[in-house]
Records
---
Amino acid sequence: MFGAIARRYDLANHTLSCGMDFYWRKRAANTVASWGPGKIVDLATGTGDLALALQKQLPDAEVTGVDFLPEMLELAQGKGVRQTMLADAMKLPFPDDSFDCVTIAFGLRNMENWKGALAEMSRVLRRDGHLLVLEFSLPTISIVRTIYRFYLHRCLPLLGSFLTRKKSAYDYLGDSIEEFPSGCAMIDLIEASGFRHATLQPLSYGIVTIYTAQSL
């Protein structure tokens, strides 16, 4: 499904978020920069937007973008992601304790097993390494949640279909956001998967949330 929309993926993301996805990734990259990691892996990197933001904020860090779709990695490389690897985030081809920081933007929700994916992230992190998850969530303010759900389920699939010719991908997007744990439920999931000191930072009225944690 994602391979089929790869060429129009960036256009759709920027249009459907009204450009807010640039802001969200910048906030995520600023958070990572405050930790000063030297070696970062960006999972489900897609076309590389977060990896590029990390490279900009941390020019001396080694940033590796990982995805299991060659179509996405080809685009990421063309945009300037310096180091990429074709791999499944559920079975990473890295030794234990390989990275100072693991990031994933809008990808954990698509994993077949959220706890298993987080445990794999914990495995490749060094002791006291940092995790950052940037993911869609549901606003906590009732009126904002109602408006957002209308956009998510009624407007977004039609706009996504027009931009990518793949309506099913955007029907899936809304359903996956509804099913994915957010807020305190996500904090509990992270801490049950090999992390501590989990925090959350809602952005844009809670449409997305930045979650952070440290490995044990």
---
Amino acid sequence: MTKVRVIRATERRGVIAASALVLVAVIATGSFVRAALAGANPPAPTIVSAPANPTTASSAVFKFADTKAGVTFVCSRDGAVFARCASGITYAGLPQGTHTFRVRAVAGASTSAITSFSWAIVPPAPKLLSHPTNPTGADIARFTYTDAQPAVAYKCSLDGSTFALCSPGGVTYSGLAKGTHTFAVRAQVGTKPPSKPTYFTWVIDKTAPTVTLAFTKPYGVYNAASWSAGCSPVGVCGTAADPSGVKSVTVAILQGSSGKYWNGSSFSSPSIVYNPATAAWAYPISRPSDGTYTLYVRATDTFGNTTPGAGTTTTFTVDTVAPSAPTLTAKPSSVSPDSTAGFQFASAGYPTGYMCQLDGGAPAPCSTQPQIQGQASAPGATEYNAVSNGQHCFSVFATDAAHNAGPATTYCWTILGNGSAITSMAGSGQYTGITTSFSSPVVAQVTDANGPVPGIDVTFTAPASGASGHFASPCSGTTCVVTTDTNGVATAPTFTANNAAGSYTITAGAAGIGATTSFSLVNTADFTVSGDLTTPFYPGGSQPMDLVISNPNPSPITIAADAVHIGISTNVAACPASPNFAVTQGLAADVTVPGGATRSLSALSIPTAEWPVISMIETHTNQDACAGASLQFTFTGSAFG
């Protein structure tokens, strides 16, 4: 308080006094800090590294650190007075037994809590000189051991029991149970901590190998294919396993029908015969005849443990006979307006299932299977809903326990809606020459109230006699069945006329449709033209020819005037037709001949002036070579009807 008053009295002394006051304040503050530091202990050190516990080493190195900077450390071993130390302190020549290391951090007058570490220096772990083989079939186990440190005592334990003193010369255990056992031994000096244990684990195997039969199939039934695919090599097979290893496997097979055992080549032995198999195991044998068999498998391990009794047993059946084709006991009518189709069926031959198929789709299990699998004539059923209009085909076949698939039974039927009809679309009203093909096919369409109907079998029928013809492949003859496409259209194969001229009708119809549709066709034959000259020729002379035309067709034909051509030849080589003869006028007018008639130009009232004219040309050379020669005429032409 006095100093404060001095400051107020004079400015200069006040400054000096103020400085003194600051110094006092600083000194006072430093004293407070020292007091605060003196009252706070540093954290306990952390031991960074230490010896293993237990250990056989007689030296120990300790490293430690503290989270507070600037501290020093003091250490103690085995209760000794703490003395200043540094991290990495080493102790050597330590005796066996338990030891404790302690360390504290020091900061000024303060020390931390103690951090301690205890460890034991023990003898080396014993070494086993002898032990049982692993695995073994013996129930006696003998162990001998030694230790690198002399004058130690040994303590032994079996299967986790308390360690007890055991002879330095070894220990024997007898009457041991089958299974896994563990022996442990450790060395100890007096009451000091013992060494680490030395362990040995082994298995006493008194159990025969485990045998499995990979051979067995569902229901234990085999057909020719599954027998061949079951084992390699073909025969019976499985697995055999044992901790000690499988030494041998033998197989016996009993045939049920004969009561005889397989002797390696035939079922002829009245008593059981075990045939050697591979240790894997597999025994090759060709598929035996149909029937039931019993298989016995025995395995022996390396210690002589053998499958008891007759061995691991299974029964199997060989069946290569497929069920018969099912009989349909219920089905839709051949033509039906119903879009629901139900089928019922049954098959002899002890079927276990049925596979159904609609319109060539993938076979699938039918909706209703046999209630008792393997029952003779077991029934099945299936139903299809919302089946589209048109033709459909259903197939069903039976399978048995051996997966033999029997022959299929197939049934086709047609679904037609209301207002069904068949109409001709193309091909009617055509003409063609006899024995030639019509240019266009005959085409029909099937419809109902819903529109075109696909999958309908349309039958095209031509007359069996008279003017007619035949359909091309895949049909033949006068009848052809064609199935309508997605547009309800049935297009018949090419139709070729026969050798009878005339008009006729091809009809087209389909089951379930009352009416038919028809196509009018005409076979046309070639007309013939002939002519003759009865008056002898002379050079420069001409003669008209009264042509005779024959029309074999049922309808009139018209021969165009410029369509008839006449060729001339002679029977004398020295008198060629050209340049001696020529047609100096052709047919000058169209000629119409009634159907089925033969008429001359004169009979048809064609004026002579319009007839063809044949002339002998005046050549002003010696034409005596033509004297007595005969002329031959050829006629070609075309007509329209």
---
Amino acid sequence: MTKRALFLSLCAVLLLTTLQYGQIMGNNKLLLHTTDGVRWTQCAFAPDGVLWVTWVPGNTNDKGGGPIYVLSYDGTTVSTPFNITESSTIKANRPNVTVSPKGYVLVTWGVIADSATYLRIRNPKTKTWGATETVAYNVGGNEPIAQMDKDGNIHVFFTKEGAGSVYARSRINGAWENIVQLNLQRGKQGSLTVGPNGKVHAVWIEKNAENIYKNVYSERTLTKSWYTRESLPGVDGASNHPWITSGPNNETIVAWQDAPDPTKENGSEIRVIKIGASTWTTVIDFYMQHFPRVVVDSKNNIHVANAIGGGDFGSGFRYTNNVGGTWRAFQTFPGSYDKVPGLAANAFGNVAATQSIFTSPRAQGTDIWVYSLDPIQKVVMPEADFTFTPTTGYPPLTVTFNATPAYGPNGSEVSYAWTFSDGGTATGRSATHLYATAGTFTATLTITDNLNRTDEDTQSIVVKKTNPLIPLNPTATITMSSLWKNPEITYNLFWEINPSNVPEQIQGYAIYMKEGTGEYTKLLTVSPSTLSSSFKFTDLKVKRAFAVSTLGYGGTESPMAYFQ
């Protein structure tokens, strides 16, 4: 057998093994060596497959911390670390990074001294970081996490462990809501996730009457705030560090560490439960381990990673997954003095974990590694772009929109969806839309590729306000009939077109009347080609006056011309 044939045979065996027993995290990359001591890394994939990693140097306990750093890795290039706190002296703590469906990168961190939670967002279009936002001050800053939905709404979860309080705060349609306290009993530790349907889920732990911590869950929507929390069914014991995630099918999964004997602290099991289920699954057996992380990949397979070791004496992490319905035996990734792994899944089915490893001797610094199922690779996002004509005009204005063709990574053309700010919608690469009124409107094109990744482009259309001019030469004649029996009076009204009007902008004419000393009220509207009208009345004692105005498209109207 040739070397090539042997190699292909081995590849086939590995492929069959992967398909049968799950995927193996076999790709690794040293992202950074830093002279700092780093024990806390978290990571998230952007829609284009770029991995974002955040970390904090120094002791990650409440009295430690430091500046928060973030970098990106596209499979080829590792970016220069960026100090997102822009401070060298800050004692920030336990950062987290997430990326929205549209590529906005969110980094959150806490400052225990201020009991505060902060947030900073990177715009994928401008590739710039916004200003630091204060989510909460003098409220809580332990282990915050923020998520942004596809529409730009933000939800933040954080705790104040010393006080036993658990909080959430949301920014809906650009406005921050009030901070909500979620727990009823003494609580701490937890996380938050947003499903593709926009529903928000949170999990944390609370101490019950028997002094045993149990997992507690709540959810909210954009229009309904958090409902009263509930204990997850079938869960008891010494629960710790629950983590929550939602998959493409909107199913929500929680992973946590739980001691079978709550009175002992010599180890724990790593358990997983689906929200709505009545029982959990132990995915990693009893060991000295903690801080599990869970993600769901693009095919709704579940992946779990957790730190090995007790408390502040980490010795690596473990990883397992459920691909094809079976939990595989865990992989072990040794490390020195690490505390918590990062775990992320992308739109292509790849999953990655990050780990910080103290060098030997420890004073030489830390290596930050990433491991992944597949090699990390940037897959360029399709970009939404369109032109329209005419670019401006008067109502009724018919505008034709044409999208620039875009394609997904498999070569298939994206889908095109249009929304117009007057309530109209359309689909397809080209679309037409009628603007009936004047104003400044926006047209938004949203494209979706075969991986369900989206991009959008928004442009403005100015529909000019028409300026109808007053009708000319309004004249009236009055005729009487049947003076002695059922008398009638007829007002015959005539006017002329104002030649300065643009015919295409004129919708018609409005005729007004007032009786006695009253106000003018509209009697009738007529077409642009109608230049006369008659009205009959039987009450001869009422004094009447008439006027006419020109109506323009878009709701505009000229001053009135009075009949003589």
---
Amino acid sequence: MMLLAWGGAAAANAKRVVILHSFGQDFKPWSEYGRSIRSELQRQSRWQLDITDHSLVTARSSNEDPEVPFVAYLTALFARQRPDLIVSVGAPAAAFVQRHRPQLFADTPTVFTAVEERRVRFTALSENDAVVAVRIDYLAAIENILRVLPSTKNVTVVVGTSPIEQFWMKEIGNAVKALADRVSFTWTNNMSFDDLLKYAAALPPHSAIFWELMIVDAAGVVHEGNTALARLHAVSNAPIFSYDESFFGREIVGGPLLAVLDSSRQTAAVAIRIMGGEKASEIKIPSVTFSTPKFDWRELQRWRISEARLPPGSIVQFRELSAWQRYRWPLMAIFVALSLQTAMITWLLLERHRRRNAELESHRRLLQVMHLSRTAEAGALSASFAHELNQPLGAIMLNTDVAERLLEANPPEIDRAKEVLVDIRQADQHASDIIQHLGSLLKRGSQIELQEFDLTEAIADALHIVSPEATKRDVILRANGAQRPLPVRADRIHLQQVILILVTNAMDALDDTAPDARRITVQTALVGESSVEVSVSDSGTGIPEHMLCEVFDTFFTTKKHGTGLGLSIARTIVETYGGKIWAENKAGCGAVFRFTLPMLQVL
């Protein structure tokens, strides 16, 4: 409620300004003056303004009878709240205010603006009136045409049939009498606009068009906005000139023009002074005259008008930049890039010559070391096989000893001996698989046959193989994990080999540990919904911190009789199937090796 009350109070204290237009809010040039004046009032005012616009459409004809209801409308509109200021735009609006001031605005201050000084009835001004007039020098405007186009023989003056247009047709005629021996003039007040378009399209050489106004043509058609001028520009075979800046920007060539902003700024300044308490009749402002000549570069180019013919100090707008001006920095960058590229190509050619000579020498030396390289690779592969076969061969040896004791017993334990023989057969098969699968893994370019299987079952089989060795070493081997299938896609034997490598290394780490403290735990856990983590932890002394990043390097080992290949092979296998493996020390004691694998998504 307080905000509403404040808003109502602000509206009540606002200065009420009425802008009265001569023809309508869309008739050039007054439409441009109206918009600019409104903007300047808002910018310069120190009060909140309530601005309303009204249009005197009766100015399109000489009949003043329709003004009667318009006067009645304005009287009723402002009966309760009289405006603080009237701003009349154009001569017809000024004349209307002066004719009906006693009925409408007897005591209301008025600023007459955008009106040529010849159209102001200075003798009828009251003490509440201030004038911001303009002065149009038509002779200077026509002489500008002859200056930039010296060969001009005919000037067509575009003017309509409304009273104000007829007034200016006579004024222009009087102003250019001095040029009668240099150029002939054609007037369009007897043409419909369609006839004007046909006429402009067929003008003879050395012609020009001067746009005064086209409000009402000879056919009685009213033309608002900029449509008429734009249509004329589209078909005309002669350049178009005018006197007011509101027409500048596309269709006219240019020249000395009345600047809209000059008038609107002065109008707003006078209005602010009046609303601030100054008496309107005491504010005297000299008439606004032509500003510095300005021209449209595009029209100069279209009509081949040399800039050397323009008046001194002229401003040329809408100039299109040359390719060099527009793309100077990109072109310079391209030039620098080409220079650098040329230098680089030259350097590369020299480098290629030196490299070719070096390659020939390198090839000769390469032939010498190829034999040694093959021998080293064969030795490493043989060592890998020997290392990996230790687990199944050891299991076979242990199970053979057990089988012999079972058969030598009295009586022989045939059933248990059969179970041991099954374990021996499985270990033998595992050794055979190691030779086949590990060889394919280490051989560059070989294809690995992938299988879908349950990682939990594969781990259980691997632990079954290594359990005799664990029993022999007094190691407690436990398996914990997720109570659900863990489907993966890989080579089953390869992943079992990873488990065997990690468990065997863990048992080796427990050799110096008391028998009753030797424990190894193999655990599985889900990582999110797309990965599984397998960890092998022991109760040993752990790994020195500075070696944690090196334990997976080939031939790196901390054992007296180790080959340094086991963990390297384990890393190769895990990374082959898209996983990751690492080592860390537990908080209490011992080390833990972990690896992750992507898990199949079961639909």
